[in-house]
Design goal:
Keywords: Membrane, Transmembrane, Transmembrane helix. Belongs to the UPF0496 family. It is found in: Membrane. The protein is an all-alpha fold. It contains 2 helices and no strands. Helix 1 packs antiparallel against helix 2. The protein is rod-shaped and about 110 Å long. The protein starts with a helix and ends with a helix. The mean pLDDT is about 85.
């Protein structure tokens, strides 16, 4: 049981590490997309009419920024769920370890009792 919990904890550690990496990568992608939209709006304002470029920049920058925030919140919730599961597994490991030690103590006491009973029967 303890080995299974340790295996599950290692898997969760790998998932947590992967989520952190994907969160950073997604942040970089959305930041680059937002910056490219801003650069595009500046170029469009120089080339095209300023009112058209301003409307185009305002219309395109809002979805990119809000989508990045939404994706970041999803990743944060998933990361928090993984951390919670990891904490539960850690507490289960501690409980299992205590239970195993208690069972070992009981086994030692039973062995001592068997020795005492056998010595009493021999007398």
């Amino acid at each position: 049981m303890l080995e299974k919990l340790q295996l599950r904890k290692r898997k969760l550690d790998k998932k947590l590490k992967s989520v952190k990496a994907w969160r950073k990568i997604s942040f970089i992608i959305f930041a680059a997309a937002f910056a490219s939209v801003l650069i595009y709006s500046v170029v469009a304002s120089v080339v095209a009419a300023p009112p058209v470029a301003a409307a185009l920049a305002a219309a395109s920058s809002v979805p990119v920024g809000s989508m990045g925030k939404w994706f970041n919140s999803l990743m944060k919730k998933y990361e928090d769920a993984l951390r919670g599961e990891k904490e539960v597994i850690s507490s289960m490991q501690a409980g299992t370890f205590v239970a195993i030690k208690d069972l070992d103590n009981i086994r030692v006491l039973v062995d001592n009792l068997e020795i005492q009973i056998s010595s009493l029967l021999q007398r």
